[in-house]
Amino acid sequence: MERLTITTTPIEGQKPGTSGLRKKTRIFMQPHYLENFVQAIWNGIGGVQGKTLVLGGDGRYFNDRAAQVILRMAAAGGAERVIVGQGALLSTPAASNLIRQRGADGGVIMSASHNPGGPDEDFGVKFNMSNGGPAPEDVTARMFEATKTLTEYHIVQTHDVDLDTLGESQMGDMIVEVVDPVADYATLMADLFDFDAIKALFAGGFTMCFDAMHAITGPYATAILEDTLGAAPGTVINAVPSPDFGGGHPDPNPIWAKTLMDLMMGNAAPDFGAASDGDGDRNMIVGKGCYVTPSDSLAVLAANAHLAPGYKDGLAGVARSMPTSGAVDRVAEKLGIGSYETPTGWKFFGNLLDAGRATLCGEESAGTGSDHVREKDGLWAVLLWLNILAVRNQSVLAVMQDHWGEYGRNYYSRHDYEAIDSAAANSLMQGLRDKLAHLPGQTVAGLVISAADEFAYDDPVDGSRSEGQGIRILFEGGARVVMRLSGTGTEGATLRVYLEWFSADDFGKDPQQALSSVIEAADTLAGIRDLTGRTAPDVIT
Ligand code: G6P
Ligand code: ZN
């Protein structure tokens, strides 16, 4: 087998974002594009000589081709073994688990998460470290530096490896081990949750609809919910992963999972609804006639986690990203445990989880997880909810009402303005930044501003500092507006406006109504309509 050294030149724009490098698939398919980036990953982590890696992806278009390239480059780099999910498939949380279970040195995950897939849609590649978590900023910075100076990459010349058959094969000196993508993950879930209680719940006639959105969780959810826990056949819908996710947008929110939302709001609603995204790390939870915002879901899980065997001794602490509502902070306060506020991006939870400071983490962007892996985990959240419902023997709505009754309600919504002009987005943010110092004390839309700043995070574990992590404006009484530009978009800029309003005793309002003055304040302060030319958000979650 010949090891080739291919001459190349740096390709601009290969900067890993919130979650690896995401680009249009056709960009990734250009000559040298993927190869350059993979070589930059190897260079950024000090090479792969003698290392064991995990490889898998969410099955989107180009997943299979990219897997072969990455394997050939791992072999050229001298890797000892690559553990690949059958069919080059692995959900992100399952990849994280596999890295940890097998003591691998890291892993490459091929996914653009919740972004659509297909030749004209998105592809992505990210690297996770030996703790199973996304590469931290210093490592991704080294990868980016490497992309800027690359002059060659190494790849072996060989035929495709069969990734459909379980077992080991050789690629030169490197072992390619094809494993069942579901098995280890399913074992972990059975350790954490009271499967007997959930089985009894389903046996008692409890009904559920899990929308896998034609993405990676289909096989996982079918194996665990239907085959193991006894949910009725057909509980999992859109269960077969497809390269373009059935033409859909695999993002589990009320907009993109509209079919499920309509079902849950209608007369024929099952007891419980859930969905997960392209690579299986996000989740949406919805009860009969009751959508649960991700921020509330995190708070409910924190308050009830002790009902599941894996968390029976309680939580060490909780962490949320800054734009996520403060609902979980109220739970932490009552439990007397630590709570942390981090920048957006799961990678910021890694140190807190590794150091045992936080057990549960979550983000408003539909991510929840715990220290069982180092990624957010969609199906895990669904199973923890099921465990809680089984033990409490209550509907989702009743759980929510009890929760708000005890802690108050943080009304919450996010308004997204997608694919807006980047220059306009940057000047909107700069305009806000420039006036932050003068805002406290001013009244906007009837709300008095108590504080305004641009969020910076000092990691309590490694002392690193991350600046420019979103602008937040706090109002007297607990309302808040946060604005930041998305770090995961692939077209123009996406402005995210996060809105929050707290009530200690009024739980029955429609969130958009409850938030109306906060929404007005956001527009007045940032001039969203004027600067973006948009009259309404593209997506409201
Ligand atoms: C990915 C990351 C999340 C993060 C989200 C936000 O899903 O894994 O940790 O919360 O992106 O992305 P944004 O587009 O708001 O930067
Ligand atoms: Zn995802």
From TrEMBL:
The keyword RNA-binding does not apply. Its EC number is 5.4.2.2. Keywords: Isomerase, Magnesium, Metal-binding, Phosphoprotein. It is an enzyme of class 5 (isomerase). GO terms for cellular component: cytosol. Pfam families: PGM1_C_vert_fung, PGM_PMM_I, PGM_PMM_II, PGM_PMM_III. It catalyses: alpha-D-glucose 1-phosphate = alpha-D-glucose 6-phosphate. One of its GO terms (molecular function) is phosphoglucomutase activity. Coiled coil: none annotated. This is phosphoglucomutase (alpha-D-glucose-1,6-bisphosphate-dependent). It comes from Actibacterium atlanticum.
